[in-house]
Amino acid sequence: MPSMTRQTANLILYRQRAGLEVFLVTRSIELNFLGGYLAFAGGKVEPGDESIPLADGLDTETPELLGCAVRELFEETGILALRGTTAAGDELKRLRLELLGDGGAGRFFSVMREIDAQLEPGTFVEAIRLVTPRFSKRRYTSTFFLLETDDEPEILPGELAAGGWWEPAAAIERWQRGKLLLAPPVSVILRQRESGIGPGTLESLRSSPETFEGSGLAIPWGPGIELLPFHCPPLPVTLPSSTFLAGTRRFVIIDPAPTGKKEQEHLLAAIENRIAGGDRPEAIVLSHHHIDHVGALDAVQERWSLPCWGHRRTAELLERSFDRELDEGDLIDLGDSPAGAAGWKLRCLFTPGHAEGHLAFFDERHRALLAGDLVSTLVSMYVGTPGGHLETYFRSLEKIRSLDIRLLYPSHGMPTLDARGLIDRTIKHRKKRIGQVLRKLEKGFHSVEEIAGEVYRDEADSRLRPLYERTTRAALEYLVEHGQAGKVAEDLYETG
Q1: What b-and-e string marks burial along 141-174, b requiring 16 or more CB atoms within 10 Å of the CB?
Q2: CB of 73 within 8 A of CB of 148?
Q3: What are the sequence ranges of the domains in the chain?
Q4: Of the four, 89, 138, 139, 361, which is 20 to 30 A from 386 by CA?
Q5: What value does the mean pLDDT of the chain take?
Q6: Domain 219-417 is classified in which CATH homologous superfamily?
Q7: Mean per-residue pLDDT for 72-80?
């Protein structure tokens, strides 16, 4: 398993009524990871999970995963998957409340041994294992188990806000209309299980690639939006750049990002998979000209001879012509929405500051913003001179802040429901940096190189020094524009 991930166990809890029903929990909106999304019950492996009591004949190399599955299922739903106990319901309820109050896995399984409860062979069936892609600050190796039950789950307020039984097709239909949020593994698994659980279920699930990287697959996130995060040198592997496939039967490829051959092959395979399913790519659309957004532009164009659309200034910076020049208010027609409604469009927003020709794209139907490099859920976005301009950048942030955004897709990092909070934190951080630059100037540091070395002392990576100096220069130019500094020579400044 990847060394940088934590292990989790997740329960695909199901029952057969008139048709297949799957139990989904709603994660509390306050949670940092996928708060507000519908997911399967489950959670992280904790110390003590390996002490789960196992029945004779149950041989496993990962008792901690089974322990986690049992503990999280009981904690989140009140369903005890262990057998053999004669403990009364009231005693189990007290134990559940103790668990929710941080009773700990070791204590839980110690009590299970005292009441002769144990996990029987065949209770859980391992179905699929998935690793969180690199675009997340929190990465997990998640093992999903199938469990059929006739018990009725009970959700207690806390990490979970609600829970309920769903027919897979009904959940997918509401997700496609933008009425609910499904954690990406859930939408994938539910679409595979719409027809029920039969002999081919395990084979189908287990054939899914464990890791995203190199899989040739895209990640379905919101209605009609798939994303593909790629490592794009010279950016570090911890700061992947996302390509977006927006649309259903017809779709556009926004920011063909990857620069490397393997990553480009992954992107081409994902597009080819869409075409094989009957979908049609309309165009390549660029948010701006930076290399980590256009690395596969030529490769995609050569494969399918697609037109390229973007802002006029982006075309100039790339020294190429566009088949369609996009600007503020222009509409990109995506045809029918995922729910089948006509007139689905992306509205272009001219949002310079990070880059001179920067565009963002707003899906008003689903209140989703493809924000490009305006903000990031991984880092504070780079705004450096030459090329960037802080006053313009702040105006662009205020423009998107005024929108009614439900889900914001940054080019670097996971999508977020907290668009306004992310924008406010971005503005606050950037102005804090400007204040740090001003204080260094007041203390007698005058050159861009000196001030950058002081401000970024704790973060100084020699490979990123040029970026630190450009962001410092942008801050100094901002101070000049606001009368707080003066420029005395090239890259030399003084207090105003």
Answers
A1: bbbbbbbeeeeebebeeebbbebebbbbeebbeb
A2: no
A3: 6-206, 219-417, 433-495
A4: 361
A5: 92
A6: Ribonuclease Z/Hydroxyacylglutathione hydrolase-like (3.60.15.10)
A7: 93
Average confidence (pLDDT) over 316-320: 97
Determine the topology of domain 6-206 in CATH: Nucleoside Triphosphate Pyrophosphohydrolase (3.90.79)
DSSP state of 344: E
Q: Is 308 helix (H, G, I), strand (E, B) or coil?
A: strand
Look-up: residue for tokens 């080819």?
Answer: 272
Residue 128 has φ and ψ, to the nearest 5°, of -160, 150
Q: Does domain 433-495 have CATH number 1.20.120?
A: no
Give the Cβ contact number of residue 5 at 10 Å: 16
Is pLDDT above 90 for 59?
Answer: no
Task: Say whether pTM exceeds 0.90.
Answer: yes
Closest by Cα among 425, 475, 468 to 449? 468
- Res 311 pLDDT > 90: yes
Dump pLDDT digits (tens) for 320-379.
999 999 999 999 999 999 999 999 999 999 999 999 999 999 999 999 999 999 999 999
How far is Cα 304 from Cα 272, in angstroms, rounded to an integer? Answer: 10
Q: What is the DSSP string of 188-250?
A: HHHHHTTT---TTHHHHHHTS-S-STTS---EEEETTEEEEEE--TTS-TTS-EEEEEEESSE
Q: For residues 428 and 380, what is the distance between their CA atoms, to the nearest angstrom?
A: 10
Cα–Cα distance, 246 to 287 (Å, whole number): 13
Confidence of residue 1 (pLDDT cuts 50, 70, 90): very low
Mean pLDDT of the 418-446 span: 96
